[in-house]
Amino acid sequence: MYRIAIQPDNQLLTSGRTQSFSDRWIEQLQHAGHQVRVVDAYQPDFFDQLDGCDGFMWWFAHLPSPGNFGKRLLPAIEHGLGMPVFPSWKTIWHFDDKLAQSYLLQAANIPMPQTWVFWRRAEALDFCEQAQYPLVIKLTSGIISENVRLLHNVAEAQYWIKRLFGSGIVTLERPNLRHPRSIATRLREALRLVLTGQPPKLGLRTDLQKGYLLVQEFLPNNDWDVRVTVIGNRA
Questions:
Q1: Is the domain defined by 98-217 classed in CATH 3.30.1490.20?
Q2: Per 3-state DSSP, what percentage of the chain is helix, strand, and coil (rounded to 5)?
Q3: Do 55 and 86 contact (CB within 8 A), yes or no?
Q4: Where are the chain's structural domains?
Q5: Please, which pLDDT band fits residue 18 given cuts at 50, 70 and 90?
């Protein structure tokens, strides 16, 4: 019999339905005769809460919070305490990180669309001036085709390079500055900055992205977003 520590999760989906992996884990572990200790990773005494446990489980979303927290905490438990965790470091180090995933696929010699990553502005500009269009630009984070955009020409590529190697961006959605809602939002942000000194709020779905360019070749006649789940030797 094992004692497993579990961090509760409760995710509100876009459909309005609530999803909880932790509730199902607790149910299945107790059904199998194991003990469960519900813990709170946000408390200062969290590591004391793990005392006497044989493992730790936490499903954290891809959003900056709690994603940034989970990707730091679980490897610390796994490597520092020597305690099994789920998901493991091998699973999460490239989670919601297209830059890391592109390097992993390349290193493992796994076929993928031709991909270019640039960490210096000059090299990114040189490439885009000579590239064949269209190209696909991506931010490193984002799911369900978020933060993916088609580049039709060098001018569009230069637009995003300027921002990615400048102040940074949180989305690849190009703002419509003439839209009344966009104007109202910018006025509110300017007023908040003047009155409180608080800068504009970043997007809730991604961190500030800057200092890199990730582009891929465009594959025509591909009308579907395909997801493949691999478990062991099964796909």
A1: yes
A2: 35, 15, 50
A3: yes
A4: 3-92, 98-217
A5: confident
Beta strands in the chain (DSSP E): 3-6, 11-12, 18-19, 35-38, 55-57, 85-86, 115-118, 135-138, 148-151, 213-217
Percent of the chain surpassing pLDDT 90: 66
Model confidence pLDDT, tens digit, residues 167-223: 999 889 876 555 565 566 667 777 777 777 766 655 555 688 999 999 999 999 888
Of 219, 216, 226, which is closest to residue 114 (Cα–Cα)? 216
- Cα–Cα distance, 96 to 121 (Å, whole number): 24
Instruction: Specify the CATH architecture of the domain 3-92.
Output: 3-Layer(aba) Sandwich (3.40)
Cis peptide before 64 (omega within 30 of 0): no
Burial of 63 (0-12, 13-18, 19+ CB in 10 A): middle
Which residues are CB-contacts of 100 (< 8 A; sequence separation ≥ 6)? 93, 94, 140
Tell which residue, 160, 131, 158, has the closest CA to residue 147: 160
pTM of the model: 0.79
128/139 Cα distance (integer angstroms): 16
Buried/exposed 25-61: b ≥16 CB within 10 Å, e otherwise: bbeebeeeeeebeebebeeeebeebbeebebbbbbbe
